[in-house]
Amino acid sequence: MHAAGAPPVTVSPSTWPAYSAPRVGRRYLSIRAWTSLSSGSENHHYSRRSQQYWDKFYKLHKNKFFKDRHYLEKDWRSYFDDEIESSHGKVVLEVGCGAGNTIFPLIGTFPNLYVHACDFSPQAITLVKSHANFSAEKMNVFVCDAAKDDLCINIMPSTVDVVTLIFTLSAVSPGKMASILENCKKVLKPNGHILLRDYAVGDSAQVKLHGRNQMISENFYFRGDGTCSFYFSEAYAATLFQRAGFVIVDTNTYCKEIKNHSRNITMQRRWIRAIFGRS
């Protein structure tokens, strides 16, 4: 349902052929984008200051921008159905928890879980701790840049059953992703899992950013508010995790076509959903 007076929107699942963002020549790039490609994504202004821009984002939007992510419960049940039925004592870590839009619905569904949650934005952590459902007994929440800060400072090694990376890796430069995975691996139990959900190549937002010459490096872009976004192919994600010592349990690209009839706009949204196991 949509609110009275809101434009009608139709959402339908869809499957499209594989899509890659078009490569662009030097003459089609803005000076800023071309400079960043030449010097590497790590040295790009928005990449270097990602923590600053995300902190500014949460100060502005607080916990109102993202909807609660109840779909994680379905992903969890489909992959860990047996474990969830006896979830007492299970430990979950969310890296890049934002304002808590994943962890609070998760705890609401599975109250026996213990949750660690971190984010590199101090403002995001403040929002989580001020949430009405925050519980210091069931949650360990802390500021951490998982690309460089050792998670073992706040979490005992090899004690986490599941790590969730929900639209987290896409927010950092590709060069930092491997470090985050190595960090997560240290706190995962043997045979633990990482649940990944993130933006996929061909998403309508990527096409829009590409058309505006906001590319930092291949499949990595900066938005108007200074935050960044990477768009994954299944092959890229598989290679990234395998090189970090994980095995592929399942991976797929979820496609959804969203139509706004009053504005006559059709958006093709794509997300990658995958499970990787610690070998």
TrEMBL record:
Extract the CDD domains matched here.
Answer: AdoMet_MTases
> Matching Gene3D superfamilies, A to Z?
Vaccinia Virus protein VP39
Q: Provide the family line.
A: Belongs to the methyltransferase superfamily. METL family.
Q: Which residues form the Methyltransferase type domain?
A: 93-194
**Main function:** S-adenosyl-L-methionine-dependent methyltransferase.
Which GO biological process categories is it annotated with? Answer: methylation
Query: Under what name is this protein listed?
Result: tRNA N(3)-methylcytidine methyltransferase
Q: What is its EC number?
A: 2.1.1.-
Could you list this entry's UniProt keywords, alphabetically sorted. Answer: Methyltransferase, Transferase
**Top-level taxon in the UniProt lineage:** Eukaryota
Broadest EC class? transferase
